Amino acid sequence: SGSFASQEARMRTVMMLNEITAEMPKHVRLLKESVRSPDDSVRMFSFGMVDAMEKRINDQIHSRLVQFRAAATEDGKAAAARELAALYWEYVYTGLADKEYRVIMMREAGNYAELALRRMKDDPVLLSLLGRIALSGRRYDDALRYFQDAMARSPNPDKLLPYIAEIYYIRRDYASVRKVFAEHSGFTHDPTLAPLVSLWTGA
After folding, report:
1. pLDDT digits 0-9 by tens, 149-188
2. 4-9 long-range contacts, CB within 8 A, separation 24+
């Protein structure tokens, strides 16, 4: 399978996939870096922004926990659990949680997502979220299954293909990486993904 990609192509793929599937949004990354700035005003402003983000997520988690505990029906509990899963995951992917706290937040996100999935088995957002959690935890078999299930149910399945390609890439299954890009024409219409399609398919 190594014949499908030169070393240069593989390096470019790593860089592009990392950018596309990076969990931490660029603006959060910049804020986190600015917190360490030697400029007092930049540092204080950035710290205030990060603090406000943490407070917003914490307040929303508290509100949804109240809803979850007060829900009178299983569907009500599932709806609150779905939102809680997304909020706990937001803590992880924004990089607001430090290493130790990140493990706890990831576990909470997974627990609530699985709870919600019992009532919403065909929800592509939940399936995708569980895929991202599994991928972050290096549970690649689980991640692949969740992403494939999400793709089968999603109105925009191409959005999930970079994650599937990343899993195959991590496994050094370059033939499958190429196949993923070759079989989904939707990629070629996405300017973010077009360079990857071209790199692996010659399109």
Report:
1. 999 998 888 788 888 988 998 898 888 888 887 877 566 6
2. 4/174, 4/175, 4/177, 4/178, 4/200, 5/174, 5/177, 5/178, 5/200, 9/199, 9/200
